[in-house]
Design brief:
The chain has 96 residues and is mostly beta strands. 0% of the residues lie in helices and 54% in strands. It has a single domain, classed as Jelly Rolls (Sandwich), CATH 2.60.120. It is built from no helices and nine strands. Strand 5 and strand 6 form a beta hairpin. It starts with a strand and ends in a 7-residue tail after the last strand. The mean pLDDT is 92.
Length: 96
């Protein structure tokens, strides 16, 4: 796995963004958004995104929203490398 940071504190107060490159068969591992939201933007390849019991296939040029409090994993199950960008909010959502 390759990871490139694009923006994070102190550059931004509320965003973290990066680029991830996964070889075929690699995954980033299960992790939670906790009280944050995120967007995955697939540049090349196909991402297999696991959210609980749900599986989403996201191809190059497509996006996927990850809601708060969501345990998820991003995997590259295709024959080509997966390249994607992610943007995550760094503030806790308030429900009023």
């Amino acid at each position: 796995m390759e990871y490139f940071s694009l923006v994070k504190p102190p550059q931004s107060k509320v965003l973290k963004a990066g680029k991830v490159v996964l070889s075929p068969g690699e995954s980033v591992g299960k992790h939670s958004t906790e009280k944050k939201e995120g967007i995955i933007i697939v540049q090349k390849g196909t991402a297999t995104i696991l959210e609980g019991q749900k599986t989403f296939l996201v191809k190059g040029g497509e996006t996927h929203f990850i809601p708060e409090n969501t345990v998820h994993d991003v995997q590259s199950k295709s024959r080509e490398p997966l390249e994607y960008f992610f943007v995550v909010s760094l503030f806790e959502n308030s429900k009023e």
